[in-house]
Hints:
- The protein has 239 residues and is of the alpha/beta class.
- 36% of the residues lie in helices and 17% in strands.
- A 7-stranded mixed beta sheet has the order 5-4-3-6-7-9-8. Strands 1-2 form a two-stranded antiparallel ribbon.
- Helix 8 (183-196) links the parallel strand 6 (173-178) and strand 7.
- Helix 5 crosses helix 6 and helix 8 runs parallel beside helix 9 (212-222).
- The longest helix is centred in the last third of the chain and has 14 residues, at 183-196.
- The protein binds S-adenosylmethionine.
- S-adenosylmethionine binds at residues 64, 96-103, 123-125, 127-129, 132, 141, 164-165, 179-182, 185.
Amino acid sequence: MNQTLSGIVQSLTPPILWNAYLRMRGTQKRFPWREFGTIMTCVDTRPLLEGRFAELYAKHRPLDPFRPLDVVRYRQYNICFLANLCRHVPGDFVCAGVSWGFSPRLVFDFVHFPSLGKTLHLIDPFEGIVSNATDEVSERYNSNPDYVLRQYPPGAPVVLHRKRIPLRLPGKFAFVFTDTGNPAADAESLPVFYESLSPGGMLITEQYGNNLDHYEPALSRLGITALWLPSGQGVIVKQ
Length: 239
Ligand SMILES: C[S@@+](CC[C@H](N)C(=O)[O-])C[C@H]1O[C@@H](n2cnc3c(N)ncnc32)[C@H](O)[C@@H]1O
């Protein structure tokens, strides 16, 4: 089959049948379809499934009792990868939207956080809120901050702020990660976080792709653009 025809057949064939076909042919050129939440890919996904990231993902993912095994694997890989690029940028790390604490705990280990001489700021009111404007809460969110703090070794440079974003914290930031499930709050916080980012620092926000109406006005006021990842995450780099 030539490459174009093969691509068409592949896009029309259910992954389970396509993977069986690949096994039958013993082909090395294409990789099986894998699904990671909203991301489906047939490239080689070994970086997500083997090595240090995969080991830490397996270790910490049970912290969140509600997330199925692979749903956030691809997104967490992006977060860890970008956080790692910011290891030597001056300033602290910030995670807004903590809940069960899985993402910040994974990043903490992945970047060898204690060796960096930085502080990890965790921001969440732990009220289970889904919006700053209503009283609606989600029972899938954690409301016990001690559950999160207990995850870290004694003396870990972690500070928990039981507050809502937008929130202005003192100091400069190397890496900011927002995942409040509340795109209005994440977008409203962009100017505050962007101002505190050191040059070369990065901000990654989880809900970007599906909520451009929230993010675009904030970005255009700042005169910047975000990198729109296929996962739906948005990335901003401070110039
Ligand atoms: C999707 S969960 C975070 C998941 C976490 N990043 C993880 O990977 O385990 C969203 C959390 O954001 C919190 N939240 C909602 N609105 C917020 C706001 N304005 N400021 C800070 N946290 C908020 C919710 O209470 C909830 O705990």
